[in-house]
Specification:
The termini are far apart. By secondary structure, the chain is mainly α. The protein folds into three domains: 95 residues, no CATH class; 31 residues; 41 residues. It is built from six helices and no strands.
Length: 238
């Protein structure tokens, strides 16, 4: 691929297929070595041979298996590398670079445009997050208000239920009726007592007027003791 049109095209777009392949191969080798190191450590723990001669023998066996696997992996990676260079990163025949503007500048412009779009999306995301927090606070406030309203409604229902169970309205109506009847009875009683008192006073006056051996001269001929008795009786009847 070196010195070919494909290398020139990828280089113009600031791409390096060879570097990509080398990074993949290095990553595979690192994973392979870490796997065998872990296998050896766990083997020593399971067999309880850490720091013994058997641990050295185990290491030799693991290294032998590692080399065998590494050889197979290297062969596979070599085939994969050739396939990538000859198939995946091979520019088709007849391909030509655009002559209007340098590809490198186009990539830079696209990167700048993507960065601007990314910044815009970040700002929008931050704004949406802020609005979401505000809506969440409003929702929590509404939930608290709704809960308080439900509690008030429940308390009112209990009061109404208690009021209905006690029959307060019926008892109040009964109390009003009883009070009216009591008032009417008291008025009748007072009227009757007033009438009786007037009759009693009139009788005493007549009696006083008729006092004195059939003499009809009235209060003029009444004795002082009779007048005093009349006044005392009159005061007691008030």
């Amino acid at each position: 691929m070196e010195g070919s049109l494909s290398e020139e095209v990828f280089h113009s777009y600031r791409l390096n297929p060879k570097l990509f392949i080398n990074e993949v191969v290095d990553s595979v080798n690192i994973i392979l070595n870490e796997a065998f190191d872990f296998f050896q450590q766990e083997g020593e723990k399971s067999l309880k041979i850490e720091g013994t001669d058997r641990s050295v023998d185990l290491k030799k066996g693991v290294d032998y298996i590692r080399k065998m696997v590494q050889l197979r992996v290297d062969n596979r990676l070599s085939v994969w590398e050739k396939y990538c260079l000859n198939q995946c990163f091979m520019v088709p025949e007849g391909f030509s670079l655009p002559k209007d503007e340098p590809p490198g500048d186009t990539c830079l412009d696209r990167d700048a445009e993507l960065d601007a779009q990314l910044d815009s999306l970040r700002n929008k995301l931050a704004q949406v997050g802020k609005e979401s927090a505000d809506l969440k606070r409003e929702l929590q406030a509404l939930e608290r208000q709704c809960s308080m309203s439900k509690q008030s409604a429940a308390s009112l229902d209990k009061v109404v239920q208690f009021y209905n169970e006690l029959g307060v309205h019926d008892k109040f109506a009964e109390l009003v009726t009883s009070a009216s009847e009591f008032r009417s009875s008291m008025e009748k009683r007072l009227t009757r007592m007033s009438t009786e008192i007037e009759h009693e006073r009139a009788g005493k006056v007549r009696k006083l007027n008729n006092h004195g051996n059939g003499d009809h001269s009235g209060l003029h001929n009444a004795k002082l003791e009779d007048l005093q008795q009349f006044l005392d009786d009159f005061k007691n009847t008030k």
